[in-house]
Amino acid sequence: MQLYKDQTLRIHNSLTGKKDVFEPINEGHVGMYVCGPTVYSNVHLGNCRTFMSFDMIFRYFKHLGYKVRYVRNITDAGHLENDADEGEDKIAKKAKLEQIEPMEVVQRYTVDFHNTLQQFNLLPPSIEPTATGHIIEQIEIIKEILEKGLAYEANGSVYFDVIKFNENHDYGKLSGRKLEDMITNTRELTAQDEKRNPQDFALWKKAEPQHIMRWPSPWGDGFPGWHLECTAMSTKYLGENFDIHGGGMDLKFPHHECEIAQAEASTGKSPVNYWMHANMLTLNGRKMSKSTDNNIYPAEIFSGNNNILSKPYTPAVVRFFMMQAHYTSILDLSDDALQASEKGYNRLMEALDNVDKLKTSGKSDFDVKAWQQKCYEAMNDDFNTPILIAQLFEAVKHINLIKEDNETISAEDKDLLASSLKAFVYDVLGIENQSLTKDDSNTLNGVMELLIDIRNEARAKKDFATSDKIRDQLVELGIQIKDGKDGTTFSVN
Ligand SMILES: [Zn+2]
């Protein structure tokens, strides 16, 4: 269904600083690029929030009937410490520390990234390209920028000439910075510096002999600059001009500003029509940071194995909590906030379980069509999920009133209410009904208790054929039983 034909979607565009009406380049199609993770450590909860925000955006476009090509990269080379042009590659550093290959680091943390996002019910992107898989494309872009005279080679490295670029372009237009201010606020270059100006950034870095991640290039062995990979991969899969580019707020400068400069320098075109930035997550009112211990990983929230929260929370509750804030607002995670979200989540799931069972009558006390339009208005206003969720609870209130015979609903309205509610909760917000899985695990526990009892009785009667059969067949199903001093327990692989 091409719902988008009836909806006017506005997107807060960081480039214009206002909410712009979304007009895709190709009717019915959306091209969206989001900066993915640098895979050198377990994925951070703050990063999960960013990817969840763009997952919701991806889902809403799909819900509206757009064909979406969503590209989200994996940074597996070129990202140096402190996001700077000097220092160690984050992945190579970790590899040295753990005495493994850089690609083992990449593999380990890519798997962690995918597993975690899957637990949060994120849809996979349409394409997930890697920086190391696009070295040739990156070298080609550097050649083009050199040909235009907007980059220069120095001692085997290639730098982007920001001052020269700024003569005919506006460096700083995305982040709202002025080049003159940047120049007065930075340190002078020293004689050893290869850069002509401190604002210049690396397109290609010469690899020192000890640098493990290196590729041949026209300028000698080296590796690409971090900003370049996103220009190469977005252009390759979405074209020189595409609809949406997203990422965390912290990437606006210099990363995204440099992406614009590289693309404009090489193609002469503005690469992106709508720049979107998702805001950060704080923990108990403070910035999350590994060094201050004000930090929590997704797995620690799900298991309850942490010193910050009073109990475990399911991925669906955490996702619901995240969706209760607008993606451009700072969101603070705390035990109180998660407890409140858990209550809200349970009420919503209960209503979803009840909506199909509602009795119908000739007329409706609840104007479902008007309610549905308000839900769309919320989403069309720059993906305003908190307003959408407030509307969903408006529906919950009516479902409960109808259930208690204090209101009535017609059969037609009931169908519309049920299908819209499910579409917004499951398809758009991506919130799973895990109360169903809770029932499943209760059933499993019951069946396992019964099997363990039968096995123990068989063993007491020295009927080892039966007890071994139960154990062996469970192993085949991926269930291990373990006899301990406190009785028999089981675990599912
Ligand atoms: Zn990027």
UniProtKB/TrEMBL annotation:
Top-level EC class as recorded in UniProt: ligase
Compartment list: Cytoplasm
Motif 'KMSKS' region boundaries: 287-291
Motif placement: 'HIGH' region: 37-47
UniProt keyword annotation of RNA-binding present: no
Pfam family, one: DALR_2
Keyword list, A-Z: Aminoacyl-tRNA synthetase, ATP-binding, Cytoplasm, Ligase, Metal-binding, Nucleotide-binding, Protein biosynthesis, Zinc
Binding site for ATP: 290
Cofactor detail note: Binds 1 zinc ion per subunit.
Annotated Zn(2+) binding sites: 35, 230, 255, 259
Limits of the Cysteinyl-tRNA synthetase class Ia DALR domain: 374-440
Catalytic activity, as annotated: tRNA(Cys) + L-cysteine + ATP = L-cysteinyl-tRNA(Cys) + AMP + diphosphate
GO molecular function: cysteine-tRNA ligase activity
Family statement: Belongs to the class-I aminoacyl-tRNA synthetase family.
Oligomer and partners: Monomer.
Protein name, as recorded: Cysteine--tRNA ligase
Organism: Flagellimonas okinawensis
Taxonomic lineage from the root: Bacteria, Pseudomonadati, Bacteroidota, Flavobacteriia, Flavobacteriales
